[in-house]
Amino acid sequence: MDAHLEADIYSRKNKKHLVLGKTPSDTSITLQSNDYLAITGHQHIRQKHLKAITDHKHEVVMSAVFQHQAESGDTFEEQLAALTGFEKCVLSQSGWAANVGLIQTLIPQGTPIYIDFFAHMSLWDGAKRAEGNIQTFLHNNMRHLEKQIKREGPGLIMVDSVYSTIGTVAPLHDLVEIANRYGCALLVDESHSLGTHGKNGAGLVAELGLTDQVDFLTASLAKAFAYRAGAILCSKDVAKSFPFTAYPAIFSSALLNHELEILKATLDVIKDADDKRSQLFIQSEKLRSGLVNLGYKIKSQSQIIALESGNDEDTEVIRDYLESRDVFGSVFCSPATPKNKNVIRFSLNSDVSDEQISTLLTVCREMREELSLK
């Protein structure tokens, strides 16, 4: 513990962890939130939130294993399943719990699991806990994936639809083709595309017309939904088994009824947010192209845009420069990234203005010149 504190905290100029710089003000350009559609504080959601808390005065806090599954088609789970095109939706306490629990439910020990190098850590943790035969393939490299499947045999392929650190997009058409050819199942984590992509926010898998060819879809509802929960979209059989086999479902308390009402209200807003989605994509493209024109190596294809900042020392310098100009992104370092491959991530939302993008590009141009960034 002492070594950790010395290396990661006390050695910093501000005596804080690298991810913690200054605190932004109300006038700062703050691109740290995952609320991509800027729905926090939406009046409809707030009203439903207050009503739900008032209506559900005596809620039973218990594990999902003891809950009877609702028969009504008006539940949040049924609505989300219908939106995404899956038979069933199962909720969990978080996106992490969704991935870990689903993989544990699906995978017999020793089953080949093919996972993208940049896949979310929850997928890695699930694969390890399931004691699968983990095979990593190079990021978005279908030739490498195919080579591994030929060697190890059919198994489960796991990817993010939109990768959370650098904003790249998975080649889902190619992944579906490979999964079908070699008899693999495909799990897609849509945490950063559910709500932001597709008609009514149905997600990237639905937008590409691949729902029938993707076996499992998971998502954190702490991104575009701006809440705290996770979702698993799957078949009826998996949904029936999950509460009784997944440790996160068995050994943690389930979501409460008033929380489900909040999620329903949020889904109403998200379905009706096509204008916000369009604006998000427009503003994201402006920033991406502007940074590329300045000479930055931008890999993003989405609303997540990352500046490569290298090692911890260089990252600290870049972070402090940006914050001195009232620009705040999120520092991603080990274990969220490979060591010395840090990034500063800008998470755009639909309310980001042209003026803010112009200011940000000016700051990044001057930073590149003053710090002699390559």
TrEMBL record:
Its cofactor is pyridoxal 5'-phosphate. It comes from the Bacteria. The keyword Protease does not apply. InterPro entries: Aminotransferase_I/II_large (IPR004839), AON_synthase_class-II (IPR050087), PyrdxlP-dep_Trfase (IPR015424), PyrdxlP-dep_Trfase_major (IPR015421), PyrdxlP-dep_Trfase_small (IPR015422). Keywords: Pyridoxal phosphate, Transferase. GO terms for biological process: biotin biosynthetic process. It comes from Photobacterium angustum. Residues 29-361 form the Aminotransferase class I/classII large domain. One of its GO terms (molecular function) is 8-amino-7-oxononanoate synthase activity. The keyword Transmembrane does not apply. This is Quorum-sensing autoinducer synthase. It holds the Pfam family Aminotran_1_2.
